[in-house]
Hints:
With 267 residues, the protein is of the alpha/beta class. It has a domain at 45-228: 3-Layer(aba) Sandwich (Rossmann fold), CATH 3.40.50. Helix content is 30%, strand content 30%. It contains nine helices and twelve strands. The chain has helices at 46-55, 70-77, 89-98, 112-118, 137-140, 143-152, 172-181, 213-220, 240-251, and strands spanning 2-9, 12-18, 25-29, 32-37, 60-64, 81-86, 106-109, 123-128, 153-165, 186-192, 200-207, 224-228.
Amino acid sequence: MRVLARFYGPNGRISVVEEVGTGIRHYEEAGVSQSCVMAGGEAGVDYIRLMAELLVGTDNALLLGCGGGALASMLHRRGAKVTVVDVNPISFQLARTFFWMPSAITCVTADMRPFLRDETRSFQAIGIDVGGPRFSYDAVLDSASIAHVRRRLRPGGRVAINISCQAPDDPVPARIADKFKAQGLEVWVFMENVPCPQELNAIILASDRREKSQALAKIGGNGWLLARLSAPPVLTAVKPARARHKRARETAPRRPGVPKVSRSMVG
């Protein structure tokens, strides 16, 4: 490994290193891997390639989280107008200086939550890949923020969300997926299929269109397990007002001169 840069950012020490034989570059922050990018700007990790395949083919894309900028670069080179939002401006500098992110990509320094609340544009594709030291998916991807994501999504659009899991049975992806399901989107989960995982990724696809399972399975290939999040059961409410009327009808004494009403006449 060859060290290209090393300095301190708001979350700890940042390192950019390059594999001498392959030219693959890695971006680490406080000991946590933020990105792996192949020479020229294509993603060096499977989950970014999967997100790109799910979001490609759109005219505009919003990405929440920059890292090394590989996802932004891949969508830009495939014809999308890309806007990237990250709270850490250092990420943009690193992506452009060391990871080949094109200058035509729009970069916005902001917390994603107020950005989503105030943004008025809509997007055909939205990618969410946020994280880092002491990061909480539940806190950042709360119900209000996900509702804002839903409002920014164009009809027929897709949202792809990366969740870094500590174990195959990590409950976080299901909790986040449920919040997107509550917004009326069709939700699928790709779980990384690795034999001995120490850390693995789950990609949530929240879609405003009817997806075909075979097409999604082909995109994921053998490296991913695919499941669709089922809709919650629909409970039929009892009509209490009608029930009270029935009880009153059966127990109240009949006034003289008033004919008894048969059940067939009751609306």
